[in-house]
Amino acid sequence: MKSVKVGLIGFGTIGCGVVKILQDNQKIINDRLGTSVDVIKIADLDITTDRGVKVGSGVLTDNADEVLDHPDIDIVVELIGGYEPARTFTLKAIKNKKHVVTANKALLAKHGEELFSSAAKSNVSVGFEASVGGAIPIIRSIKEAFVANRIQAIEGIMNGTANYILSKMSDGGHDFDVVLKEAQEKGYAEADPTFDIEGIDSAHKIAVLTRLAYGTPVDFDDIYVQGISDISTLDIKCAHEFGYRIKLLAISKFDGKAIDVRVHPAMIPESKPMANVNGVLNAIMVCDDLMEENVLVGHGAGSLPTGSAVVGDVVEIARNMISGAQNRVPPQSFQQSNIKNIPLKDMAEIEGEYFLRFWVLDKPGVLSQISGILGNHDISIESVIQRIKDDNGQGVPLVLMTHDAKEKNIQAALKEINAMKEVSEKTVLIRVEK
């Protein structure tokens, strides 16, 4: 039986993992597939650095076109990340009638509609399991295991760097900057960690999952995104006193009319499984009409975990090639003709409970003044913490938990409160997800 020929573009951490898996686990892949998967070309700007993975003579090239135009290559694996030149390379592979596998969540979130439409016209497959959750089979689960389920919500910890930082802050009492530096030293965070700590990486991923869950494209720029850089150890201690842990959550909810999609720090009850997923692990919860809640937990990044998801897509496409069942499963979960535009819910209309931390001068009447402003905006207080005395005239923390309130009312109230002369710092707001 003809072997399946693969070309890689990008020979970094994940690319090395893919090649290592295909080499080390060659026999089990052959036994399950019925033929071999051979990497015959790898393109990367750096083809001299020793990566600890041996490839044959002539396999490496610094010219991506040698992969994209190679007549024998069946599947192109794009692993360079980012928008460009990944978009250009991927579209050219599709135009050349080559199947594509990618781990590029940014590309899919920003240009998914263009890529999927092009693939449908060329009748080729697009595999992207590795784009969300690394080794967690969340995309395959939505497209196949949950195919009869009416998904109502997806909620997840989708960035290992942010989860590591918040976990260390929670368990060790260390400040954000200290833990971030430690994460960088251990290789859990990039030299520029902006995409991870500011929620952009998680937003890319929830955009991809929203498309699959509800059959609708999502404009990435319309997603509300807030990161974790303003979270303090004080916030984490207060959350614990209230019975919560703080996590960076990616959230997508569909009420049948509009989709609520956002990324931000959130307080989760300590009794919930998601609250106890720590370190660099990811967790994704799917809620639907048949099984209520289903939580998938695993390694969301890394050479071999992500590489295993890439290889899984390669083998799935190879099986389709062998059986002649092209695009047996629609790449977008829904049939192309059933993809429709569903409106996004206005963030101002979101309702929920809120954690509010004020820094106020320790004067009589400040609490009643703040509670009065909240009350004027239909916000009621559930509980209060104020235990530290002001010894130096710099103010004290005042922490409130609210009952359900509308986001627009909270923001209007905080605008008034932050303008008070007794409030010395901008209020910290953390939403509660129960």
Structure, explained:
The protein has 434 residues and is α/β, with parallel strands linked by helices. The chain folds into 3 domains: 4-129 and 303-330, 3-Layer(aba) Sandwich (Rossmann fold), CATH 3.40.50; 138-299, 2-Layer Sandwich (Dihydrodipicolinate Reductase, domain 2), CATH 3.30.360; 348-432, Alpha-Beta Plaits (2-Layer Sandwich). The protein has helices at 13-24, 26-33, 65-68, 86-95, 105-122, 138-145, 160-172, 176-185, 194-197, 200-214, 233-242, 303-323, 366-376, 407-418; strands at 4-9, 37-43, 60-61, 75-78, 99-102, 126-127, 151-157, 224-225, 244-254, 259-269, 281-288, 292-299, 351-360, 381-385, 396-402, 405-406, 423-432. Strands 7, 8, 9, 10, 11, 12, 13, 14, 15, 16 and 17 form an 11-stranded mixed sheet that branches. The longest helix has 21 residues, at 303-323. The chain is elongated. 43% of the residues are buried. The mean pLDDT is 93.
